[in-house]
Amino acid sequence: MAKQFSYTSKKSVDQLINTAINSSNTMRKNVQIAAVHILIHAAKCGDYTKAQTLVDGLGQGVNARGLVEWFIKFGGLTVSEDATGFDGWQGKEYIKKNLDDAKSKMWFEFKPQNPYAGFNIVDAVTKTITSAEKILVTQDEINQLKKFLKAA
């Protein structure tokens, strides 16, 4: 295992980068193919549970939120109130009606992730104000937050 982390050359680094990019692109394509086949299976057999198997099996290495949103949009799947998994669907006809779109819209385009989002103080304070308005805080405290936001 240690040998795979031994540096050899710039060329080997470039090759590893290309391998990683190609592997990632292949993985995204394979997830799309599996997801579409899950919808076809559900439309034929009434079994949408394979969607959960795919989401759970992929784990943290992918944009699972995007895949879940894709299944909701094209499979008509619904998510449990505690957001721990799929708990229903809109039926076979829903999938049949949306299958062509499911084939052409890639799952990772849903809920895209931006690794360089950074921290935005205005967004953070705005979110805090929204939260503060929903809980028991004084109007004076909310006004102080809004004053801070205007000054930023």
Describe the 3D structure.
This protein has a two-stranded antiparallel sheet. It is 64% helix and 5% strand. The chain has two domains: 108 residues, no CATH class; 31 residues, no CATH class. The chain is flat, with a radius of gyration of 22 Å. Strand 1 and strand 2 form a beta hairpin. The protein has 152 residues and is mainly α. The chain contains six helices and two strands, in the order H-H-H-E-E-H-H-H.
Helix percentage = 55-70%
Total domain modules: 2
| Average pLDDT, all residues | 86
The computed structural class is: mainly alpha
Q: What would you call the quaternary organization?
A: single chain
End-to-end distance, in Å? 50 Å
Largest sheet: 2 strands, antiparallel
Total helices: the number is 6
Shape label: flat
- With strands numbered from the N-terminus, the spatial order across the biggest sheet is 1-2
Order of helices and strands: HHHEEHHH
Q: Please compute the radius of gyration using only Cα atoms.
A: 22 Å
Report the sheet-strand fraction: under 5%
Which spans of ≥5 residues are poorly predicted at pLDDT below 50?
Answer: none
Number of strands: 2
Task: Compose a concise summary of this entry.
This protein has 152 residues and is mainly alpha-helical. It is 64% helix and 5% strand. The chain has a two-stranded antiparallel sheet.
Give me the secondary-structure topology.
Blueprint: H1 10-45, H2 50-58, H3 64-75, E1 77-79, E2 86-89, H4 92-104, H5 121-134, H6 139-151
Antiparallel strand pairs: 1-2
Helix pairs in contact: 1-4, 3-4, 5-6
